[in-house]
Amino acid sequence: QGIKGSIDSQGKMALYGIFFDTGKSEIKPESEKELKEVATYLQDNPSLSVYLVGHTDNVGEANANLILSRNRGEAVKQFLIAKYKIEAKRLIGDGVGQLCPVATNDTEAGRRLNRRVEIVKK
Helix 32-44 and helix 62-84: axis angle, to 10°? Predict the structure, then answer.
């Protein structure tokens, strides 16, 4: 289905190929493939504006997770601007911490699904 299909049907897509070290907001190099797909989608749809929303699991303190998730959303925004020349006005980087889990936080598999960045149509 890809990004376009998910955005068209759900208005958003979870991006599980953007990686960060625990507790950090610097994008890891292995994130490049997913970020290139996002950039290509945005370049192919120049009138579209999106939110880049960071999500965390529930490990750690809630307020720290909220700040971390916002920093990660903003890091993705800045990466797309710097590397792919996506217009800043089309992107909003933000985060919601641990408030919107998609799976249980009681298992590592669930926590892994909760740690994500979502692209959301504005």
Answer: 60
Residue 87, judged by CB atoms within 10 A of its CB (0-12, 13-18, 19+), counts as exposed
CA Rg value for the chain:
14
- The residue with tokens 């996506």 is 86
Residues 71 and 95: beta-carbon distance below 8 Å? yes
Q: What pLDDT, in 10s, does the model give residues 98-114?
A: 999 999 999 999 999 99
Q: What's the CA gap between 22 and 121, in Å, rounded?
A: 27
Q: Integer distance in angstroms from the first to the last C-alpha of the chain?
A: 20
* Residue 43 confidence (pLDDT) above 90: yes
